[in-house]
Amino acid sequence: MDNPFFKNTGPYDINNLLKLINLKGQNFSEEKINDIKDLYSSQNKDITFFHSKKYNDIAKSTKASYCITNDNLKSFLPDTCKPIISDKVLLHTAQITKIFYPESVTDDFDNTVEDINQTKFKEKVKFGRNVLIGKNVNIGSNCLIGHNSIIEKNVSIGNNCSIGSNVIIRNSLIKNNVYILDGSIIGKKGFGFFPDKISNYRYPQIGIVIIEDNVEIGCGSTIDRGSLSNTIIGKNTYLDNQIHIAHNVKIGENCIIAGQVGFAGSSTLGNNVMIGGQAGISGHLKVGNNVQIGGGSGVIKNIPDNTKVMGYPAKDLKNFIRENK
What we know:
Strand order of the largest sheet: 8-11-14-17-22-25-28-31-34-36-37
Oligomer: single chain
Distance between the termini: 54 Å
Number of domains: 2
Largest sheet: 11 strands, mixed
Structural class: mainly beta
CATH architecture of the largest domain: 3 Solenoid
CATH class of the largest domain: Mainly Beta
Shape: globular
Number of helices: 4
CATH superfamily of the largest domain: Hexapeptide repeat proteins
Helix content: under 10%
């Protein structure tokens, strides 16, 4: 599927792409590359990346034509995917992403916004004072928007949604019956960069936020849009106040997450997960279905289905209680 919100400047010849990022020593037959995507969603004539053994199984079935990876991982790729060997996989991936999507690096304020009274939504939406609406915005029926809120460009909001006061939303698809409470920020860029002695290189964020039906987002929460994939909040999930969800995180259905919980990038939660306040979930992890995580816990490894954990590092709840009597 084409990126709905960021303009793709491709296609590019594969060898020209590598020259632009100064990745030398590799030459391929002339071929146009249409896009850069993650391992899972890549198609023929796309380029992707593969940097961790955590993604071995996905790499084996990727449909991408080219993959930026290293010598240790290239053997996992199918014969249809040509490896591009790099000693800086993520940096080179970021540089190519920026070439395809140059507008995705920064998140300056949206200068397309207008006062809602000057838009087609003035008769359709019940709204407070100082509400601003950007370009490429759709809002369904029976929606509310509170005071001083900004629906920036590239947002779709379904029916029966309530947007609180002092909320900022951009680059997001919000389904039906969603409540986003005061002070939340949805769809801004994630915290992705590569440290350097001279300057830090920002990772482009070309994904979006998808919030499914019947979700509630608590006050002061921040949900970052995805980098190459999307950030997703599943149906009937409730987030308490002051929760941070980083780029590419995928939260399942019917989850309940208490206040001040933080999710690092690219972690996945199953359905019916409950997390106590001030817990932290490290990046690139998988938390199964029906999992309960105690408040203040630090999750640093995968958690299987039907498990209760607590502590730092998070461990089986019975073991935690036994060790802390």
